[in-house]
Design goal:
about 110 residues; alpha+beta; four-stranded antiparallel beta sheet; 1 helix; 4 strands; elongated
């Protein structure tokens, strides 16, 4: 015996389908905008503003399939770290960091 034997179900109309898809797109867009705003302006505990960063990975180099060499900058000094399956090891620390080079437009080409 069927529980819904006498109930007629109408097929979904195209306008209902468009309404559902539109609502889904709107909600996803709002979530994306909230994520971008959190990244841009920084929310304490969730996302930091770009200007407040003290730590940066400057460069990485794969030594082999399981070991990676990382150059990390913190507060104006750089640290060379080896990361592997057995853990991490500091190779060199307290290296004076060179200032970041900015791209300068070539005046001769202009």
């Amino acid at each position: 015996m069927r529980a819904f034997e006498g109930v007629r179900v109408r097929p979904m109309e195209m306008i209902d389908l468009l309404r559902y898809v539109g609502a889904l797109v709107l909600v996803l867009a709002l979530v994306g905008l909230a994520g971008l705003a959190a990244r841009r302006f920084g929310i304490p505990g969730i996302a930091n503003a770009k200007s407040a960063r003290r730590l940066a990975v400057i460069e990485t180099l794969m030594l082999d399939a399981r070991h990676k060499l990382c150059l990390v900058r913190r507060d104006g000094s750089e640290h060379l770290i080896v990361i592997g399956p057995q853990g991490t090891a500091v190779v060199e620390t307290g290296v004076k960091a060179e200032p970041l080079l900015r791209a300068v437009p070539d005046e001769a080409a202009a």
